[in-house]
User: Fold these one by one.
Assistant:
Number 1:
Amino acid sequence: MMEDLKQNLFSTIDKINEHVIGIRHDLHAHPELSGHEEHTKYLVKGILEASGYLIKESDKHFGLIADLRVDDNAKTIAIRADMDALPIEEQTGKPYASREEGIMHACGHDSHTAIALGTAIAMAEHQEDLPGNIRFIFQPSEESKEGGSVEMIEDGALEGVNGIFGLHAYPYLKTGEIGYKYGVMMASADIFTIEVFGKSAHGARPHEGVDAILVTAMIVNSLNHIVSRMIDPLHPAVISLGTVEGGRASNIICDHVILKGTVRTINEEVRNNIPLMMEDSIKGICKSMGATYHFDYEFGQPELINHHEMVDIIVQEAKEIIGEEHCIDLKDPVMGGEDFSEYLKIVPGAFFRLGTCNEAKKTCVSQHNSRFDVDDDALQIGMKIMGASALHFLTQKEL
Ligand SMILES: [Zn+2]
Ligand SMILES: [Zn+2]
């Protein structure tokens, strides 16, 4: 019976595929930055309401929660899509390229939203046959440092939810392939600011001042020794400085420098130790040089850790849809961050990568690049894997 339902769901997905591609193009042409997803929200809401979903909105942000409930005693699976774009000027030259100056769907969140919407439409068509409840979480602000998933969780997005699935468009795999990963898939992402205070003086009389630039140079050097000399090489970590700002003129000893950077790890203990090591080092250098400092460290998204059995479900279903040879075990985690990790801290779930590279369509460019685009042919695969995995989860007893 389940097999019939799955096949019916797939034929509905085939039927609505062109419509879903159209939705993706509309979203792509009208990208909105994190926290400003208003047009996107109303487009999503209209489609979901027409399909009979129960919608929960917020007055604080543009995210929404949409429910298809069939049985209060049955399990509930959640499917999450992020909706925000990036401050990048699009250069793809595609007919559906961004009409908003300086804003672009350069991470593929337009495809995530379209895939979730298509899956939602198809599920609603077979509502009476569904073995459980389905919730769609349309999330804002994935690209912001706070991460919109936290807001959605605060709004109750995971209340009554037993499991969750999410995906990300991935230009390093071909359309028709997916990438999966058991355990840790992505790094935690923290940010920091270091301010160094020295004392200004004439450039010709350095002994009368405290050179904040020289102190900064020593700090930069020492921060680069933390990963190479103080952390177990078996635990990957990254400390990267993104900006250095300071100084006023070529002949004045600088008295104030601001440094900003990011830290990525895939291990909780390493993550907690890094800010302590950083501050020890900053403190020692400043003391020896007569400078003072201010160190601000903000913990961002945690590591993304996939649930073993939930990955199994994705892989089992994907093998049937695209063939075993097209399901790629990614083996190594990446040091990028993703706020889907917040959901995974609360309920079992899995995040997978949907291949979107098609050389002929120029969709093999990396994310956050002005020429990035998603191959439309990947949408159908995304909908089928999401839909089939949701049904699988709802009928599986153990999880
Ligand atoms: Zn991104
Ligand atoms: Zn993204």
Note: The chain has a mean pLDDT of 97.
Number 2:
Amino acid sequence: MAEDLTKKAAEMLLNGATLLGEPCPYCSGVRVMKEGQALCISCGRQPEKKDISTSESTDESASPIEKTLQKKLTILSAELEQESDHEKQQGILKTINSLLETIEKTKGKQ
Ligand SMILES: [Zn+2]
């Protein structure tokens, strides 16, 4: 189930979704946003759209490692957007997948 969500999130990122700085209000999971819809990759909930600001909403509770991972993800999703080579895209997606999993694990330990 969670694996499906991670895959879906990776697909969304591939299709131009962005990573949300704000964690999921239900489970503090990582969320991706596309066309105003935020999807939590942890619990799969899509909270009703309201002013989800992508502006520097730094997660106060995020640990330094988490912040680093999220920054990395942002960079990777930008790379993914620019990459036209399918094999390289797959490589980036794999990295994104493992990063997302790592973030989830970090959160789970809190
Ligand atoms: Zn959630």
Note: Residues 12 and 31 are 11 Å apart (CA to CA).
Number 3:
Amino acid sequence: MNSRNGVVENGSVAHCFNPRTDIPATEAEAEHVQDPAKFSLGDFIVGQSTDPLRPPPQFTQWRKAGAWEASLYEPELLATAGVRTTINYDGKRHPVINLCSYNYLGLATRPEVIAAAAEALQRYGMGACGSPTLSGKTDLHRELERRVAEFLGREDAMLFNSGFGGALGTISGLLRKTDVAVLDNRSHLSLRDGAVLARSRLERFQHNDPASLDAALSRRKGKRQLVIVEGIYSMDGDFADLNRLLEVAESHEASVFIDEAHSMLACGPNGRGAAEHFGAEGRIRLIYGTFSKAFGALGGFVAGPSETIDYLRFYAHSYVYSCALPPVVIAAILKALEIGTSEPQLRDRLWDNAHYFRQQLNGMRINTGHSTTYIMPLIIGDRARMYRLGHELRRRGLFVAPVDYPAVPEEGICFRACVTANHTRADLDEALNIIEDTIVPELLQHA
Ligand SMILES: Cc1ncc(COP(=O)(O)O)c(C=O)c1O
């Protein structure tokens, strides 16, 4: 989580919070942070500490008071990110149905992927041991760049050792102080951080709202502007309203950058993401994606015109000054790409599961917000209730992610569930039964 200048941001940009007046001001008063549910990460950005290495005492006190709530975070998996896995819960091995994973197509655990990685490990050893610019690139890296470019019908592609670093490096590598980054207000933090690093001006538009985008672009007429959207929004699970937003961007002659982190390989008839899903590939010059979601691995990429990629190879600092992905990971991604492009039935299963699960949830009157994809918020809207239910769900063997403010607005506090191609109907029905026994009665009681 991160925050700056009175704007708290996490998975998404710009949930401005109202500065509170009831935060304990002194160290002695900090002892009185008794009820952790009354506070959030939005409250401790600025503290009384005079030493930057010392966090605000109020924060430390709040963390102690909220240890039970916080124990839902950073869970330890004791097995693969499969649909049924084992986690450490309360110091014990605990079997769960996993609705927490980005392993959308099940590729992280495919035997062919594991075999390809094992072979590369033997041949290349563990690390790349160098920046791609100087010494970290193998023939496998170049092959993956070519394959990604070919897959997306682009002139070239380049790889980053993390998705976050890829977005950060690309945006900060392209934008300059006099430019404007125009972001959807639900965009991922990596995108905003890229614009901040570039010291470019930041304009935000209301989520998926063409009129708001039009107004944002009009405010900075005459400047170089980059409209930044996501294929599928990672907290809300809805698509960008791509064609309508593109129309507005085009009317202002603004360039568009799309983050396909959650959509790449998992949607579009051939897996080429939201741009393909909406038939908009020809209208978007630069495509960014991650290998940490449907590819089941790690890393990021950007694909587009070779002159742009060539420029970024020198000006994206997270590329030039950071070690290349280990060859073992590249080999796994190459195999995952091969499987993901040759087995469209994986995407069919993913989408069937997503529609089924959401329909069943909505049938139980669970609010899934604007989700139309395999990412679904189960909106609870109350912090204390969400943490209480979170523990009950874990105890009952359902693994979903708690999502608190400021990652989402207060009224959107939720669990995030992700379904995958590998979930069976039995897995999903068992999960739904647990939800019916736990969340549904609570929501009815507070309706
Ligand atoms: C929309 C979006 N972009 C970028 C990233 C960063 O990707 P990675 O986790 O591969 O670093 C994420 C991570 O979840 C994301 O959701």
Note: The chain has two domains: 70-102+344-445, 111-342.
Number 4:
Amino acid sequence: MNIIITGGAGFIGSHVVDRYLKAGHSVAVIDNLSTGSVKNLNPRAKFYKLDLKNHSQLDKIFKREKPEIVNHHAAQAEVRRSVDDPIFDAQTNIIGGLNILHCCVKYKVKKIIYANTGGALYGAAPSAKLPVREDYPIKPESPYGMSKYTFENYLELYSKLFVLKYTSLRYANIYGPRQNPQGEAGVVAIFIGLMLANQSPKIFGDGRQTRDYLFVADVAQANVLALTRARNQKINLGTAQQTSVNQIYKMIAAEIGFTGKPIYSPAIKGEIRRASQNWDLAKKKLGWSPKVDLATGIKKTLKKKHSRPDLDNPFFALVN
Ligand SMILES: NC(=O)c1ccc[n+]([C@@H]2O[C@H](COP(=O)([O-])OP(=O)(O)OC[C@H]3O[C@@H](n4cnc5c(N)ncnc54)[C@H](O)[C@@H]3O)[C@@H](O)[C@H]2O)c1
């Protein structure tokens, strides 16, 4: 199949690119490299360096590539930035997303697969509701959660107005090779980066706050399954497990042989105490289950190179 992947030079999107190419699909990546890197890019993918907000150039790419599937991973993905600049967040995640949707309809794309968030949608669910299911009330607590949710609503609307199917995958906390240690959310990448540099990571609060950590290869597999399954569904991808920041710290420190103590700092105001996501629907609709446990995932993250070698890509900056 001809597939366009937005955000394919980013952490998760680049793993999806690899899996689609391995499955024999033809892949074109659209990415403005704002947080992604050419080093993540599979040299067998075509690459268009472009911002989603550039509608006329997007149109040209769709016209040329004639994709059957669009996999949409590009986003303004930082909660803090969304609070500081909600307009920029909405311009990327909503208007940029609508530009993609407009091209999908115009060029008769069959299906769009969307990388949504679970964590930023459900808010602080009480312990009794964890692991949270898809029908748990959605209450975004940041402009990022709101913009990601808004675009999911557009997908549902477009599936009714036009002949365009969708699958929205609501991710838990994803970790693995190529995650940017400079990013705000990737505690595994941040801890690994600091411990390898023999520096003590900071832990905000008492470190007993929990998250649901899902390995990136499991996410890529769900994106493969979604090519042909789970029509017009919103599906959680998580492990249904909770792991505390203190536990993560200990696991990574043990793996690296780091003996320093964490620097405990004041808790971040408004930070959710516990999070985990039920994946029964993913099993039912996609035939998916998480395969890589956290200990194995951390080992794999440490073993794999974080980037690819720089390669001359003949398609680089084809549009700009
Ligand atoms: N990492 C997680 O734990 C997590 C959790 C939930 C949802 N998600 C979603 O998964 C997707 C990928 O996240 P990631 O962690 O790989 O982040 P990432 O920053 O590594 O990837 C995002 C990619 O989008 C590109 N991009 C950003 N704005 C763009 C624009 N205007 N035009 C074109 N390209 C643009 C970036 O350059 C980058 O390559 C995002 O949609 C994010 O909301 C991630």
Note: Confidence is low (pLDDT under 50) at residues 305-320.
